[in-house]
C-alpha cells in the first residue's frame, strides 16, 4: 500500500514547475461531512465514534438511515463496528446516513468451496475469504453465475469475523474469465477527459479504523499506473482510455450523478479495477470502464452510496500542452 | 459433361489444384503455431467446452493441424488421400463448430489463428472455412505432393496463388485487425514506454548535456509519469547550492522539443532556471523557433565585448561617484550595442531557454 503524500507533493511541485501549475492542482480538502471510526457507543438516538481526532458524537434525526448489510434500524449498530458517517448538510452533529461494517471485495476468484470463496484483490494484497450466504446467493448469482477460479468477482458486503459476507454484486460485467476479457479498442485521439465509472475500496480493510491513518486517507487508486516505480501493480490495460500516471499526480474527478467535483491525488494501484470493464446502473450513465477507485470516505463525500458500489464519473487530467 | 477448352484450360485447372496443397499446408502450420503459442480462451471451440478442457483442446487442434500440414506436404499414395480427406473434414467441421459458437456467443472470435482471431465470427470467417474445405476436396486424386509443387513453381502457380491469397485476405478479419492495430498509433498519453528509451532520448538531448555538470549522480532519485511526459529528478549542485534537477521527456515528442528541465532550489523551492521549449506553438515573429542551446550560448559569447567591459569597469573604479566618465564618446565605437540592452542580455544569458 503506497500512501506517499509527502512524496506526491514533491512530484506535483516539480510537475507544475515544468508543465505549468494547471497540470498539478492541489488536492481539495477532505469533506468535513464524512467521518469514519470505530463505534464506541450506540443508542437509539446517538452514535459515538472513536476517531483519530478523539471521540465524535452524532445525533440521529427522523430521516437518518442505517446500513449494515441491509437497511436496518439504529439498534443494529453495535459497539466495535467500523462505521462511516455522512453528516447532514446543516451541521456536523447530525448523521444523515450511517454505514456499519461495510466491505468490498474486487478481484479474481482463486478458490471456491461450497459457499466460501477466496478472492485475490491483486497488487500483492492478501487474499480475502468471502462467504456467499444463502439469502444473498440469488442476488450474487445474477451477476456472478460462475463462481469458479479465474473469474472476476466484485461484491459489496459486511465484515464478519475476518471474512466478508457478500450481500450484493457490484459489477455488471458479463462473466468472462479474466484471461479472456476483450482487448481495448484502438484509441486514435485523447482529449484529457475520460468518462466511466468510479468505485470505492477500503485501504484499511475495515480493521482498527480509529487508529489507521489509511482509513481516512484522501485519494484514489488508479487503474492505469505507469509500470516504472510500481512493481507490484499487476494491472492490465484498462478498457477506458486512461492516461498513464504515477502516484502523486492529481486529477479532477466529477460525480456525473450529483455534479459534485473534487481534486484527488493518485495514491495507489487499482489492479482489480483494470481487470473489469462494466457500466454503473445507479444513474443510467453510458461510460464503460472503471476510471478511479476512491477511498471509502472520499466516495461518500462525493455523493456515492457504498452499497451501490459505483457512480458515473468523469476525470480530467491536465497536460499543460500548447 | 466437359468444360469448353477456351474457358478453362486443363493445365490451369491442374495448377489451381496443385497450388492448394502447399497453401493449405502453410495455413495449417500458421494456425497450429498461433494456437499453441498465443492464448485463445473464450474463442472458437473453447466457447463450447468446459474451462478445464479448453487449453488441451486448443493444443490438440494445433497438433492435428500440424500432422495434416506435414501429410499434405510429404505423403503420397493412400496416406496422402487420408491427409487430404482429413483436411477437408477439419475445415468442414470447423464451419459447423463456428456456426454453433456464433449461436452460443455472438461476441466470440473464431480462434482460427489463436489469440489473433478475436473479431466476432461473421460470414467472412464462415466463407473462408468453407472455401478451404472445398480446396482440400479439390486436391483429392492428385499424384504430386505439396513439397514437389512448392519446390518447382511455375508462372501459372504464381498467378493462382496470388489471386487466392487476395481472396483469403479479403475473407480474413485477422489481417484487417492487425493492420488497424499497427497503423493506428496510440496517443502518447496511453503509450507504454520503456525506461531505457526515455533514458536514451534524455541523454541524447542538448538539455541533458547543458545540465550534466550540475548533476551529482548519474542515476535519477525519482521517476514518474504524467500523461505524455516522463519525469526524472536528479540531485544537483549549482553555485554551491543544492538543487533538484527535474527533466521531463515527452513520449513520442519531436527531437528538438522532447526534453525540458527545471532546476529547483532545494531550500527555497524556487525555480532557479528552466530549459527546453516553453510552448508548442510557433513563435509569432522571426525567428520562428528558438535557438538550440549551443547556438544561443555561442551568440551570447559573441555579444559580450570583454575589452569594453573591462574598460567600463576600470572607468567606474576611477570615477566612483556621480561624474560620468568619457563613455559616451567611446559608445559610438560599439554600434548597435546599447548599454542597457547589453546589460539586460548579460544578466539573462544564464537563463536562455534552450532546446527550441
Report on the structure:
- The complex is a heterodimer of chains A (322) and B (356).
- In chain A, 11% of the residues lie in helices and 38% in strands.
- Chain A is mostly beta strands.
- Chain A is globular, with a radius of gyration of 19 Å.
- With 356 residues, chain B is of the alpha+beta class.
- Chain B is built from 13 helices and five strands.
- Chain B has a five-stranded antiparallel beta sheet with strand order 1-2-3-4-5.
- In chain B, α1 (10-37) runs antiparallel to α2 (51-74), α2 (51-74) runs antiparallel to α3 (77-104) and α3 runs antiparallel to α4 (123-138).
- The longest helix of chain B has 28 residues, at 10-37.
- The model of chain B is unreliable at 327-356 (pLDDT under 50).
- The chains are: A mainly beta (322), B alpha+beta (356).
SSE blueprint:
The complex is a heterodimer of chains A (322) and B (356).
Chain A: H1 5-19, E1 34-42, E2 46-51, E3 54-67, E4 71-72, E5 82-87, E6 94-100, E7 102-113, E8 116-120, E9 128-131, H2 134-143, E10 152-160, E11 163-169, E12 193-201, E13 220-222, E14 250-255, E15 261-269, H3 271-275, E16 290-295, H4 296-301, E17 310-316
Chain B: H1 10-37, H2 51-74, H3 77-104, H4 123-138, H5 146-151, H6 155-171, H7 173-183, H8 195-203, H9 206-211, E1 222-226, E2 229-238, E3 241-250, E4 259-265, E5 271-275, H10 293-303, H11 306-318, H12 327-331, H13 339-348
Antiparallel strand pairs in B: 1-2, 2-3, 3-4, 4-5
Attribute tags:
heterodimer, A: 322 residues, 6-stranded mixed beta barrel, 4 helices, B: 356 residues, alpha+beta, 5-stranded antiparallel β-sheet, 5 strands, disordered C terminus
